[in-house]
From TrEMBL:
This is DEAD/DEAH box helicase family protein. InterPro entries: Helicase/UvrB_N, Helicase_ATP-bd, P-loop_NTPase. The lineage of its organism: Bacteria, Bacillati, Bacillota, Bacilli, Bacillales. It comes from the Bacteria. One of its GO terms (molecular function) is helicase activity. The keyword Nucleotide-binding applies. Keywords: ATP-binding, DNA-binding, Helicase, Hydrolase, Nucleotide-binding. Residues 168-320 form the Helicase ATP-binding domain. It comes from Tigheibacillus jepli.
């Protein structure tokens, strides 16, 4: 695929969250009405769309304290501990950090004590031990089943078609699959049928990649291929960070804000930096998946560990495609 050859690859730099102007407008009438009247169904569904499948700090939830307290009191938002301490030490519940060196303590204005915080994910906002993370509990969102979502009319080679049929099979079986495909194998197009099938079934999909430039490149291609579908691109510096679309393209760092959000998780370049070096990224991508879900891993250069898994048949299938023709298929069932 062309983006593998990009020489100006830029990697994700985490930045503070921002609520889009649209979203602020959407929440504003809710804020007004909650002070005197119960929330309407429409308002609740707007909130569910905004916060379902997320794991957020209080400061990432843009709403006034009155409404927020109300939503906590009716258990729409559930507080979960942000840092858990056990005999093994601390674990950050947002990024999974357990390294002692990546925790520190500071005098805390909120609890008036010295408070532990996580240094590893601090660029996404400080996780303090005394401040919980919040997850939305109900109601859950039902994503629309989209009839004929794909307008791409190109054709796949016989090999790509065979591979994409296997991906659809994995979707039905809700399993894990590793696709080993060299640069230029036409991975994106090969994914279109499985994305199409998932959208027809009303599933929510995430395509995650370590590289922000790949996210930026994929967005217009997917918008063109799936014009009826809500699609957002999330990366450090992206305009929209609300993450409310049915099809999300995101840098793996952005997955730190999701929990049980996606029916289909496609992770590109699992063997590329920083995904292969930073344990918090596989941690976050696992948490961002629903149970059950389908996971598709893409790699051009599988690590030894993955090659071993392939040999042991731990992954259901592995494909090895060349740029022009299929050089070989390896199937392990
Ligand atoms: Zn952390
Ligand atoms: Zn504190």
């Amino acid at each position: 695929m062309a983006y593998h050859e990009s020489k100006s690859a830029t990697y994700e730099h985490i930045s503070s969250p921002a609520i889009s102007p649209d979203e602020s407008i959407a929440i504003h009438p809710i804020r007004q009405s909650a002070q005197s009247n119960p929330l309407t169904k429409k308002e609740i569904s707007l909130l569910a769309k905004r916060f379902s499948g997320k794991l957020l700090l209080r400061q990432e939830i843009e709403m006034d304290e009155l409404l927020f307290s109300h939503l906590v009191s009716i258990h729409a938002f559930r507080p979960v501990p942000s840092i858990i301490t056990s005999w093994k030490g601390e674990t950050c519940q947002r990024c999974g950090n357990q390294s002692k060196a990546l925790f520190a303590a500071m005098p805390c204005r909120k609890c008036q004590k010295r408070c532990i915080y996580c240094r590893k994910c601090i660029e996404m906002g400080r996780v303090l031990a005394c401040q919980p993370l919040y997850e939305w509990t109900s109601p859950t969102i039902h994503w629309p089943s989209i009839k004929d979502p794909c307008s791409w009319r190109g054709s796949l080679t016989a090999a790509q078609e065979y591979a994409s049929n296997r991906l659809i099979q994995a979707l039905h079986e809700r399993g894990e699959m590793l696709v080993w495909a060299v640069c230029g194998a036409g991975k994106t197009e090969m994914l279109f049928p499985v994305i199409t099938e998932a959208l027809k079934q009303g599933k929510r999909i995430c395509i995650a990649t370590p590289r922000a430039d790949v996210v930026r490149e994929l967005k217009p291609r997917l918008l063109q291929a799936f014009p009826k579908v809500s699609i957002q691109a999330l990366y450090g510096g992206s305009e929209d960070k609300t993450g409310t679309a049915q099809l999300i393209i995101a840098t793996t760092h952005q997955l730190l804000r999701f929990k049980a959000a996606f029916d289909v998780m496609i992770i590109d370049e699992i063997d590329a930096f920083p995904y292969n070096k930073d344990a918090s990224l596989p941690f976050a991508s696992n948490r961002a998946k629903k149970t059950p879900s389908t996971t598709i891993y893409l790699t051009a250069t599988p690590r030894k560990e993955h090659q071993l898994l392939i040999q042991k048949s731990s992954f259901r299938m592995c494909l090895c495609l060349s740029a022009i023709t299929v050089t070989r298929f390896l199937f392990h069932n």
